[in-house]
Amino acid sequence: MQIERLELRLLKLPLVQFFETSFSRVVEKQFLLVTLEGGGLTAYGECVADVDPYYSSETNDTAWHVISAFIAPRVLGVELAHPREVFPALKAIRGHNMAKAAVEMAAWDLYARQQGQPLTRVLGGTRDRIASGVSIGIQDSLDQLARKVEHELAAGYQRIKIKIKPGWDVAAVETVRARFGSVPLMVDANAAYTLADAAHLAALDRYGLTMIEQPLDYDDIADHAALQRQLATPICLDESIKSVHAAEQAIAAGACRIINIKPGRVGGYAESIRLHDLCARHGIPVWHGGMLESGIGRAANIHLATLENFSLPGDIAASQRYFNPDLIDPPIVVDADGTIAVPQEPGLGVSIVPDRIDRATLRRAVFVAPLASSAVSRGV
Ligand code: SMG
Ligand code: MG
Predict the structure, then answer these.
(1) Which of 34, 100, 272, 350 supports an S-S bond with 299, CB 3.0-4.6 Å?
(2) How far apart are CA 283 and CA 354, in angstroms?
(3) Is 163 a catalytic residue?
(4) Does 149 have pLDDT greater than 90?
(5) Among 107-121, 214-228, 362-376, which stretch is predicted with the lowest mean pLDDT?
């Protein structure tokens, strides 16, 4: 297969509701969308970088730069037998996993479309529905949190995740447990604590949380291992797992008992599959994380979450929680049993609405393969 054309867009969409983590509150989403063309087919990859370098060091601007200057020239017009060749082809570029993943995942979509198969099939998925969990941001009051939890449980979600930070942790968990009993519940700190908070975090042990996600620093492994020795609650790593190698080290150190997989964080689908398989070999359950994706990135996540060891509900929820309208129609829906049907059409398998993409576009650039380039300039 050959990628003949790569289009890069910066999109802006308002969020249906604000989303607050330990590091920021957001009311809109800006993200890059990669569109690839090859063999008469069009494929998509959503980049999970953000406007600011708060979740990760990458931003939309760094991803734009790296894709334009370094990734596009390495993939355009290159004969690829399989999309798993994309990540190794980018080895010279250090880091920038979100930029790499946006292009790599679009290449998998292109490949799947060429094969006439849904992505789940070419990725090696084993299920046609995935379990859906919901991530509820920090709210203005505990009452507001309780209302949100009530709403999401009524919608059927199989587990609740709440964001925590110092000053919004034990009381928030206490509120949910007092109001909703033993619902599957976890917390995500987005690196808001230090090892000096170990005794405070241990106060969460009595609430029977399924896990505490990324309590300590975004690139830390050693302190998480020390913390895990002091906590009964399993630690799940998110930000710290930037590669398969980091996961090997974290597992060997006992820094986590669960791992959250986001393909953008590790450089795409191929690395996500390697991470998934590593965790399976070590008896570490995984679940699929979320980055407030539009329906395009959400569909990509659904397909990956069909792999066997994604044994816990992911942060993959209904479109209507994020964007109205979404960039796809029909949107992603969660059924009353808290599951999402896996699209079965070729590639991502969702119907993308070009008008909505155009309306959301702030910036656009097109890159073409050397030969195709002369054809385009001749107006062919
Ligand atoms: O997509 O529902 C979603 C968001 C899930 O909580 C979520 N993501 O650390 O896991 C995480 C956060 C990162 C989002 S901040 C951009
Ligand atoms: Mg997280």
Answers:
(1) 350
(2) 43
(3) yes
(4) yes
(5) 362-376
Maximum distance among all Cα pairs of the chain, rounded to whole angstroms: 70
CA of 229 to the centre of ligand 1 (A): 26
pLDDT of residue 371: 59
* Closest protein CA for atom 13 of ligand 1: 291
Residues 104-118 as b or e (16 or more Cβ within 10 Å = b):
bbbbbbbbbbbeebb
Cβ atoms 152, 136 nearer than 8 A: yes
Which protein residues touch ligand 1 with a CB less than 6 Å away?
Answer: 21, 50, 55, 135, 188, 190, 238, 289-292, 315, 317
pLDDT tier for residue 375 given thresholds of 50, 70 and 90: very low
Contact 215, 163 (CB under 8 A): no
The neighbouring-strand residues paired with 160 are: 134, 185
Q: How far apart are CA 202 and CA 183, in angstroms?
A: 20
Q: Which residue has the tokens 């008896």?
A: 283
pLDDT tens-digit readout, 322-347: 999 999 999 999 999 999 999 999 99
Where residue 349 falls (left for φ over 0; alpha for ψ -120 to 50; beta otherwise) is left
Atom number of ligand 1 nearest to Cα 290: 1
> Which protein residue's CA is at the shortest distance from atom 9 of ligand 1?
190
Looking at all shown ligands, the one closest to residue 56's CA atom is 1
Cα(244) to centroid of ligand 2, in Å?
17
CA 338 to CA 357: how far, in whole Å?
29
Helix (H) or strand (E) holding 180, with range, is helix 170-180
For ligand 1, the distance from its centroid to the CA atom of residue 190, given in whole angstroms, is: 9
CA–CA distance, 244 with 278 (Å, rounded to integer): 8
**260 Cα nearest atom in ligand 1:** 10
Q: Which ligand is nearest to the CA of 51?
A: 1
Question: What is the distance between the alpha carbons of residues 259 and 203, in angstroms, rounded to a whole number?
Answer: 22
